[in-house]
Amino acid sequence: MNVENQSFDYDEKGQRYSNYRRTDPRIAKYITDALETAKTIINVGAGGGSYEPVDRYVVAVEPSASMRTQRIKNGKTPAVIGTADYLPFDDQAFDAAMATLTIHHWPDLEKGLKELRRVARNQVVILTYDPDKLDMFWNAHYFPELIEVEKARYPKIQDIVDILGGKIVIKEIPIPIDCRDGFQEAFYARPEAFLEKDVRLNQSAWGFLSEKVEQRLVKALEDDLKSGKWDEIFGAHRNMPFFNGALRLIVAN
After folding, report:
1. DSSP 3-state helix, strand, coil percentages of the chain (rounded to 5)?
2. Is 80 exposed, middle or buried (0-12, 13-18, 19+ CB in 10 A)?
3. How confident is the model at residue 5, as a pLDDT?
4. Mean pLDDT value across residues 230-237
5. DSSP H or E segment with residue 159
6. Residues 35-59: what's their mean pLDDT?
7. What distance in Å separates the CA atoms of residue 148 and residue 64, rounded to the nearest whole number?
8. Are 117 and 252 in contact, with CB atoms under 8 Å apart?
9. How many CB atoms lie within 10 A of CB 74?
10. pTM for this structure?
11. Which CATH superfamily is domain 10-252 in?
């Protein structure tokens, strides 16, 4: 596996991304609450527009042409072509800045976070994963190589805090059993989802594994689902209304 280049080619591999990666309203509420009374918001690495508040003025920044096209199909406003490390806006141009499940794709984390801080008058709101908590999910048992990729890609929470500065609040975000989004932990109660190629295609970490490794990992899960072994060990997850894993919301004021 090669994670030296942490970026994922959404133009090549993410053409159906927004079909699977959608806003879950329960997670969205945490983001909306964190934005408080902000009326103007910049959303960096905006993708197809998931988690953008619909009742605010939002300017989206997105480098991928495929993702910008999906925004239009989803009825979102067009995105500015740009990257996190250089935002073409004046200092304090927005009330707040947000970035959801994107900072692990940025080639220069420090530049990107400092740009968010520069263009926001008030809070910076970031949804990400704590790489030190990724082992809490059962897929660490079945997909160890995948988890190693994720650990290498996601920045440490403390590094984010140190760069942003200011007053920081870190919230653990519970994931609902019927989560509408398609990230890995969203399927904690639905392991069969990982047997679907399209589900995996829209979880970027799989793109850093070889086809051979991916098939081996999926086959191990499939065998245990068929034999009942998964349910013997992890079956309690099927009835957990929420899962508290690695998903974190960082709010810097």
Report:
1. 45, 15, 40
2. middle
3. 42
4. 98
5. helix 157-164
6. 95
7. 26
8. yes
9. 15
10. 0.89
11. Vaccinia Virus protein VP39 (3.40.50.150)
CA–CA separation, 23 and 71 (whole Å): 13
Alpha-carbon span 55 to 53, nearest angstrom:
6
The yes-or-no verdict on residue 10 having pLDDT over 50 is no
Can you read off the two tokens belonging to residue 111? 């530049």
DSSP 76: P
Token output for 183: 């990230």
d(C-alpha 30, C-alpha 113), whole Å: 20
Q: pLDDT tens digits for 51-109?
A: 999 999 999 999 999 889 988 988 899 999 999 999 999 999 999 999 999 999 999 99
- Residues sharing a CB contact under 8 Å with residue 177, sequence separation 6 or more, in sequence order: 188, 189, 240, 241, 242, 243
pLDDT at 160: 97
Residue type, 155: P
For residues 15 and 167, the model is more confident at 167
Q: Locate 31 and state its tokens.
A: 């983001």
- Residue 19: pLDDT over 70: no
Which residue from 136, 132, 153, 148 is spatially nearest to 213, judged by alpha carbons?
148
* Residues 175/235, Cβ–Cβ less than 8 Å: no
> Using CA atoms, how far apart are residues 188 and 242, in angstroms rounded to an integer?
9
- Asked if 58 and 67 touch (Cβ cutoff 8 Å), the reply is no
Residue carrying structure tokens 């994670």:
3
Domain ranges of the chain: 10-252
Which structure tokens are listed for 13?
A: 């591999």
